[in-house]
Amino acid sequence: MKGAADQQRLCWTDVERKEVVSGAAPCDVVFLNPDDPIPDAGNTLGQFGRDMYQVMVATAVVVDARVRRGIGIGVEMAAAVTLGTPVIVVAPRNSQYRSDVLEYRGVRVTDYVHPHVAALATEVVEDFTAAGRALVALAHRPKASQPRPEWLSAALTEYKDHVLDIDAPMLQALRKIESSAPAATSTTA
Length: 189
Hints:
Layout: H1 14-24, E1 28-32, H2 44-57, E2 60-64, H3 71-83, E3 87-90, E4 98-104, E5 107-113, H4 115-120, E6 123-125, H5 128-138, H6 150-162, H7 168-179, E7 183-188
Parallel strand pairs: 1-7, 2-3, 2-7, 3-6
Antiparallel strand pairs: 4-5
Helix pairs in contact: 1-5, 2-3, 2-6
């Protein structure tokens, strides 16, 4: 949750994190939290770079698609594909991005998955426990990244050069990742 407006939204909580951990057992899961503040909140490129860095170092990006989401999650999904990071989308049947039957533009579609989700997701799962199982299954998959666009390279460079060394929550997460081999890492979106 980013602020008061999100109090009424369906967002990640400890419940969802516990379900991912349960599904991934016995593997350790380290969550990279994009909501942790960076030391210089005015460095917007650094903030964006932090989000992209988390996407880059994660085993997978787990997307909460139970309800409608915003532009940031779409950008993180597209960046993940570019960086070779698998995308696991939690989209229960008959929710915002997935439907058994959809009447759309005068056509009846069965087993519908939103086109952006279908194109970018490595896995579409029903719940967070299934996301944990998918995370483990993808943990040893080699990353096959695409050429990086300038906007992504600039953000990653800004973050690594000017923010990472003073980003205590991220440094702590990186230490956890390094000390718990093999660990599955997930950035939440």
